[in-house]
Structures are given as C-alpha cells and as structure tokens.
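#struct-pred

JT: dropping the chains for the assembly here, can someone run the whole complex?
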Amino acid sequence: MITVEHNPALFKEGEQVKVSEKFPIGHYRVPTYLRGKTVTIAKNLGRHINPEEEAFGKNAGNELWYYQVIIAQKDLWKEYLGSKDDTLEIEVFENWLEPIK
Amino acid sequence: MSENHDHSHDHNDGHHHDHTPITIDETPGYYEILEISIRELLIARGLIGADEVTKQIEVLDSRSPVLGSKLVVKAWLEPDFKDRLLKDGNAAAEEMGITIYDNTAFTVLEDTPELHNVIVCTLCSCYPRPILGLPPDWYKSKEYRSRTVKEPRAVLAEFGTLIPEDIKVQVQDSTASQRYMVLPLRPAGTENFTQEQLESLVTRDTMIGVTIPKINNN
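RK: done, full complex below.
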C-alpha cells in the first residue's frame, strides 16, 4: 500500500470512532442502522474510490481511506436476542467516520 | 433459424414436443428499457461492441460455486495456500486460474471452533460473483438482507443451522469494494476423504455461511 504523506489515514486500528449521523441525498453506502453508532476500527483497507462520486461518473481520483469496522450486536440493537459476544463487521469510508470527542 | 433444418416434425415416435413459439408478452419494466437503451446507444456510438457484451455474459455464466469449493478444499489440504488465501484472496484465486474480473477485493473469512461467519449485503446484492457465480434469489431478498444483520441466529436456524451460544456469530455486511466468502471448518470424520469428496461437501450456502459442511449419511 502506498501512503500519500499529505493525506494520511485519520484513524488507527483498534480506535473507537463514531459513524456520522447524516442523511444526504444521493448515492451512499452506509446503511441507516449504522449511522450515529460507535464502532471500532478493525482494519485499514487502504484507499478506494469514493462510491458517492463514482455513482455520478467521477471514477478517477478522489480515493478515500476505507476501513473495516466492528460493533457488538448488543450495541447495535437494543433488543438483540443472540449471544452477547456476537458482532457485525462492515466497511465504511473515512468521510463517514468522526473522532470521538 | 435455417429454412432447411433437418429436425423432423412428423413425431412418429408418439411423444409430442411443445412447439409453441417462445414469446415475451410482458411489457418490459422501466429498468429493463433503461438498460436496453443504454446498451444500444453504447453499441451505436461504437463505445462498446455487441461481442463484448456477449463475452462478458459468457464470463459471468462460466462462474459457479464449484470454483469456491476448490479454493476451500485446497485451503483445507494445504496450510500454505490457506495462509495466502486469507492474506490476499485475489492473488490466491488468480493463482488457481480464477480471474477477479470486476476490480473487487476478494476477502476470505475463516470460521474457527469459536467463530461462525455469515455474509449479507443489506444495501444491494454484493456477492463474490467471480468465485461463486450469480447470487441466489433469497440472498437478494429484502427479508434476508434486513433480518440477517439484526437476528442472524434466527435466520441461520431457518436454514437448519443452529450455532451454539458459546460460538460467536459474526455478520459481515458487504457494502462497497470488498467481496466476501466464508472458509468453513472442515467437518470431523473427513480425514480419509478424497479431494473430490471434500469438494462435494462445500456447497454455495456453506460459503455464504448460512449452512455448514455436513457429511451426507444417506
């Protein structure tokens, strides 16, 4: 992976971050169930083309950092019935992640 | 069709073929018309050829879960290959002659005695098509997509898969560039199985994670 010095990844593996709670119009890849939730960065997947721009034909440049994040099911759904250790993993682009203040 | 084809229509053999011509009576839907229009325009403007469309359809049709089962069994039999498969799915697949034609990152999730993986795409139908072919209809259904993230154990139970409480269930929601396949556990009692016998245990659903490989006793 080539790390561009002037655009380092904002988040580290193991770090807790918040998924943005926003509802833009257009093409987005963040399910509503995840918005506003606190997740843990499981893996940095490198930089990928932002699908929100790619959906409108801009398929060159504008690569964003892209992460695998993980969350406990019991933190995702109040009424979760499975094991307390069950988890969900999902990929999220950096423009949807915020540091926890 | 050729005028002088030699297919007999006399049917002296006593069985009757249905020769009703295949007709499409339904009016095409909005998206079908959109797809046809865009495809015809791209071809008319010379941006792509009709042969390229046909060729891509042939590539899509050539993929099936057989490819995935070969990867799984090779990983069961060769620890070095398993390491490469888990580290870089694309490279390991290409090593086996399976091209990842769609610029996605093929990612293999390993089940362990403590962890069971199951894959879903809540937003659409992301699926490792280069490895497993086209997804089953239920995978694209709103019910599977919405329930698997929320009550995975109940969904798995409906597939006949009961995961004990002390085994963690991890749902993998596929959202953009990654495509996932589960590397299931090799079942006990298969130590003397041949490669072909092992491959027959690794069905499509075991690689999505809704079932686990089982020895067929009947």
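JT: nice. Chain B is about 40% helix and 10% strand. Residues 43 and 50 of chain B are 6 Å apart (CA to CA).
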